[in-house]
Amino acid sequence: MAYRYAFGDESGDPGFTFDRGSSHYLVVLLLLLDDPEPLRDRVDRLRQQLELPPGIEFKFHKTSAANRRVFLAALQSHQFVGYALVVDKGQLSAGWRSASDVGFHALCFAELIGRIPANELGDTILVLDRFGASKTTLRELRSRLKVQGEGQTIRPFKRILLKRSRGDNLIQCADMVAGALMRAVSASDRSFFDLVHDKITVWQYQPDENPPN
User: Fold this and answer.
1) Which of 39, 125, 127, 156 is least enclosed, having the fewest CB within 10 Å?
2) CA-CA distance, 48 to 126, in Å (whole number)?
3) What whole-number distance in Å separates Cα of residue 213 and Cα of residue 204?
């Protein structure tokens, strides 16, 4: 049965100037669930529990180690599944490197979406953290989904929405899990990701797989 919602975010950046601080990896992640309200409420309660301001945004790289553990452990009792794609940017072909920042994000999310079992996405509302201009992002993403599906949209999303993570607790959940996975692959520190790893399926992108046109 298809999930009603998919919330996504990424960790890392689309740059390739590694000697100037670009991340060596990009992680894109989707959390799939039917009812987002219990998890949305849980994040609000976590702010109270941790004595944080009501509107503060949970971002993995800005959250203390102790609060990361509390947050990620709290996700265990909630009903969702996660899928993530890890991209080693240093291994990518020229086709990837020539993409715009927005195009690169769209390519990565299209690659991830193409791996998710077909019966889990269908008439699903896809909500992503906003990156770049909304119209450009939507155009790039829809274009890449059609390429992945050989001319047909590969997943019949009911709607694709781009939101600011600050105002959406579910995108913040995706950020925290993606950040934990990034920490595991880039710093060999699984202490955070191990708190949720049994709910997340992770794929590693292979450099010669589906090179962009």
Assistant:
1) 156
2) 28
3) 20
pLDDT tens-digit profile of 118-177?
A: 899 988 999 999 876 778 888 888 888 875 656 565 555 889 999 999 999 999 999 999
- For residue 33, CA distances in Å to 39, 80, 126 come to 10, 5, 11
The pLDDT value given to residue 97: 86
- Dist CA 31 CA 81 (whole Å): 6
Cα 82 to chain centroid distance, Å, stands at 9
Q: Which residue has the higher pLDDT, 110 or 60?
A: 60
SS3 1: coil
Give the domains, in start order, of the chain with CATH numbers: 5-204 (3.30.420.10)
Separation of alpha carbons 85 and 1, rounded Å: 22
Which residues, 6+ apart, have CB-to-CB distance to 82 below 8 Å?
29, 30, 31, 32, 177, 196, 199, 200, 201
Assigned token pair, 50: 């941790």
